[in-house]
Amino acid sequence: MKRNCIILFCDNEHGTGDKTFPDLDSMNSEQIERAFIESLPVSVIRRAAKMEGWGRISGGDYCPACMESL
Questions:
Q1: Among 3, 21, 33, 69, which one is most buried in terms of CB atoms within 10 A?
Q2: Residue 23 per-residue DSSP state
């Protein structure tokens, strides 16, 4: 079986995985497994990210800290 999981990476200097949505560092193995099982579409992930301060500018996704400086 193949599963996909959408993870947003900040397109600023955090693009190496320092800032992701959902925050992989704060997730336990059960939460990560659930994210793969749910396989939510990118539109749902971006909507949830926006509620936590993430934004999208010119096709790039930006974490809340970067959104303050843009």
A1: 21
A2: -
